[in-house]
Design a protein that fits this description.
Blueprint: H1 2-20, E1 44-52, E2 59-67, E3 70-78, E4 83-90, E5 129-133, E6 139-145, E7 163-167, E8 184-189
Antiparallel strand pairs: 1-2, 1-8, 2-3, 3-6, 4-5, 4-7, 7-8
The structure holds copper (II) ion and zinc ion (ZN).
Length: 192
């Protein structure tokens, strides 16, 4: 009987204890954080000097700028033979070899066939095309696309680490894998 009384007392104490534990409503501070994203509108820009290759005297410079998702390339080239010349982006920024072949084949991250830029049958992301040098051997070409970027995470678009090659001849847009444009007369790595 004494044991039962003790048990009742213990149970009563537990009951009281539980009642006292009744929690006060927790008022959480509803702190709303307003995060403002400030976009820096500075255009990305890479400027490179073209180095003569294959015993040519072809030099010049290439400027890439990126703004609002579009990359513009402007190349100013001199020392050329008058007429049409191909200009491409090749897979490597390595211009160390005398013939420019260290820059590798055409930059082709989407595994397409060589062709004219925008063609339905495919084209490399480096298939810029041809430009014309005047009687003095000077030529310029401007090219814009949203299929490139300067230093983004998309390796099908990122031109950094690739190389610009100017050829002795014109790109025929059909010969595989590089348009039969002849010797590589100038080279520049696309490096920041
Ligand atoms: Cu080329
Ligand atoms: Zn190509």
């Amino acid at each position: 009987m004494k044991k039962l009384t003790v048990l009742i007392v213990v149970l009563a104490l537990i009951f009281v204890a539980c009642k006292n534990e009744k929690k006060e409503p927790v008022i959480e501070d509803a702190v709303e954080e307003v995060i403002e994203v400030v976009e820096v509108a500075t255009p990305k820009k890479v400027t490179m000097a073209l180095a003569a290759k294959s015993d040519s005297n072809v030099s010049g410079n290439v400027v890439f700028t990126e703004e609002d998702g579009t990359v513009n390339m402007t190349a100013t080239i001199s020392g050329l033979e008058a007429g049409e010349h191909a200009i491409h982006i090749h897979a490597s920024s390595d211009c160390s070899s005398p013939d420019g072949k260290s820059a590798g084949g055409h930059w082709n991250p989407t595994a397409q066939q060589h062709g004219k830029w925008g063609d339905d049958t495919g084209y490399h992301k480096g298939d810029i095309g041809n430009f014309t040098a005047d009687e003095s051997g000077n030529g310029t070409i401007s090219f814009s696309t949203d299929e490139w970027c300067i230093g983004c995470d998309d390796e099908t678009k990122n031109i950094l680490g690739k190389g610009v090659i100017v050829h002795a001849g014109a790109d025929d847009f059909t010969s595989q894998p590089s348009g039969a444009a002849g010797a590589r007369v100038s080279c520049a790595g696309i490096i920041e």
